Amino acid sequence: MAHYVFVVLDYFPYVLFVYILMSWFPGAYETGFGRFLSKVCEPVLAPFRKIIPPIGGVLDLSPIIAFFAIRMATFGLQYLVYNYILPIVV
User: Fold this and answer.
1) How many angstroms from the chain centroid is the CA of residue 59?
2) What span, in angstroms and rounded, lies between the C-alpha atoms of 10 and 15?
3) Chain segment 22-58, per-residue pLDDT in tens
4) Which helix (H) or strand (E) holds 82?
5) pTM (2 decimals)?
6) Contact in structure between 44 and 16 (CB atoms under 8 Å)
7) Angle, helices 62-80/32-51, rounded to nearest 10 degrees
């Protein structure tokens, strides 16, 4: 089970990157793929946008903070699972 969580956390930054790149293409968010990525990525980005609003109304730094937060969460969970939880189970 933990393996699947780590796989999702490992691949989510790539999904987020594709979502960010879609902002460069007009109408990309209105496609079926764009709506799917919006449903996946917006709940993650929304808390960061509340903390760091877009600079000048244009430059949104929340994805960068989200990347770092996801990586730190992944490393922290891996450390806990492999050093504390798995030794107890095995």
Assistant:
1) 18
2) 10
3) 989 999 999 999 999 999 999 999 999 999 888 887 8
4) none
5) 0.79
6) yes
7) 90
Q: Give every CB contact of residue 19 below 8 A, 6+ residues apart in sequence.
A: 37, 38, 40, 41
Count of positions (residues) in the chain: 90
Please name the amino acid found at residue 86. L
Summarised one tens digit per residue, pLDDT across range 59-86 is 889 999 999 999 999 899 889 888 887 7
- DSSP per-residue letters across 19-67: HHHGGGSTTGGGSHHHHHHHHHHHHHHHHHHHHSPPBTTTB--HHHHHH
Helix axes 2-21, 62-80, angle to 10 degrees: 170
Give the DSSP H or E segment for 53.
none
